[in-house]
């Protein structure tokens, strides 16, 4: 590898030879030749051989994604958690084998939380294997969050990092696990009464504001400004103002001044309260759905629901069936009354004078 000057051609010549491959290129100026030589040396350092790309491992790609992309992500803790879950399926794989890692993720099952004893008896091992066999597969939503990590890495590796020669498609699973449960106002009060403090206060606030669990857990006195709750950065990346109703204020004051345990314990209190009122499958996020049902039952449209919940109108469409039920109820009321009862009587048509003949 070197630079020579051809007196006859008045050109600087760069010759590079590496493991049988050779490159020869001429330049008008020495600076151009040195720049080309430097780029070639960098290529050899990064890719191993001239004209041949280095084969990166999948773990290297995930490390770069973790360093370059995740710090700028709003939900970086959740993304890191999903990356850690994905790493279990990437051992021994190269980046161009990312589709195989995706196949492993799709077939993953829930992990057993029971520790394996250091000296396991045959009976203990048999019981552990039986317990592992009974573990249910992960939900499509959980699997898709992990597949989304692999898909993003594959796209970056091809389009921006140039670590792949061709794009690789990562297919997500269809999600059919959307299950919404709605509470009545009476059931919300029963649930709050059944929850230990401070989960009882959190329940009331969530049901009557539509706030997310993460927003509530990070709530402090500084967020309360007069008759509103101010949230500087929400899930959708925009600030949010939540009006404080008379129903919410006592619970809000108790919540922000409470000595709270860790979030896992608070959720445990909520789950125990839900079980106590016969709602064993109730999730905390269902309180957000309950807020939407309250609004629609009171006659507000989906645009208002989207504004209150701070979500897009497309996401609010998941509650369209509730809106349709309200419309059906209204039309049935018209049918049953024969159209005779009206809050505002229709004005009689004005009789027009006959035209002169």
TrEMBL record:
An individual GO BP term: DNA recombination
InterPro entries membership: DNA_brk_join_enz, Integrase-like_cat_sf, Integrase_catalytic, Tyrosine_recombinase_XerCD
Domain of life assignment: Bacteria
Keywords on record: DNA integration, DNA recombination
Alphabetical list of CDD domains matching this protein: INT_Rci_Hp1_C
A GO term for molecular function: DNA binding
Disordered, as annotated region: 106-125, 335-357
Biased composition (Basic residues): 348-357
Any Pfam family the entry gives: Phage_integrase
Tyr recombinase domain location: 178-332
PANTHER family reported in the protein's UniProt record: PHAGE INTEGRASE-RELATED (PTHR30349), PROPHAGE INTEGRASE INTD-RELATED (PTHR30349:SF64)
Name used for this protein in its record: Site-specific integrase
């Amino acid at each position: 590898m070197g630079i020579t000057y051809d007196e006859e051609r008045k050109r600087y010549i760069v010759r590079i030879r590496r493991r049988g491959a050779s490159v020869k290129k001429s330049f008008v100026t020495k600076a151009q030749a040195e720049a080309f030589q430097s780029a070639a040396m960098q290529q050899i350092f990064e890719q191993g051989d001239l004209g041949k790309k280095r084969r990166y491992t999948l773990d290297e790609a995930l490390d770069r994604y973790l360093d370059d992309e995740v710090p700028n992500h709003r939900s970086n803790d959740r993304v890191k958690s999903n990356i850690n879950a994905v790493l279990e399926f990437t051992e021994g794989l190269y980046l161009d084998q990312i589709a195989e890692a995706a196949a492993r993720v799709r077939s993953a099952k829930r992990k057993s939380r029971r520790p394996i004893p250091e000296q396991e008896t045959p009976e203990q091992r048999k019981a552990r294997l039986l317990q592992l066999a009974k573990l249910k597969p992960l939900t499509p939503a959980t699997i898709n969050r992990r597949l989304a990590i692999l898909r993003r890495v594959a796209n970056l590796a091809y389009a921006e990092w140039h670590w792949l020669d061709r794009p690789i498609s990562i297919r997500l699973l269809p999600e059919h696990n959307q299950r919404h449960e709605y509470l009545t106002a009476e059931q919300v009060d029963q649930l709050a009464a059944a929850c230990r403090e401070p989960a009882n206060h959190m329940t009331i606030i969530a049901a009557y504001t539509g706030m997310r669990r993460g927003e509530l857990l990070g709530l402090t006195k500084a967020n309360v400004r007069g008759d509103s709750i101010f949230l500087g950065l929400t899930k959708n990346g925009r600030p949010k103002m939540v009006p404080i109703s008379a129903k919410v204020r006592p619970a809000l004051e108790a919540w922000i001044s409470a000595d709270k345990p860790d979030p896992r314990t608070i959720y445990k209190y909520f789950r125990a309260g839900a079980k106590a009122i016969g709602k064993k499958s109730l999730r905390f996020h269902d309180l957000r759905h309950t807020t939407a049902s309250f609004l629609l039952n009171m006659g507000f449209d989906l645009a208002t629901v989207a504004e209150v919940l701070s979500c897009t109108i497309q996401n609010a469409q998941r509650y369209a069936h509730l809106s349709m039920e309200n419309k059906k109820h209204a039309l049935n009321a018209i049918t049953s009354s024969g159209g005779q009862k009206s809050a505002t009587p229709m004005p009689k048509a004005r009789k027009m004078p006959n035209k002169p003949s």
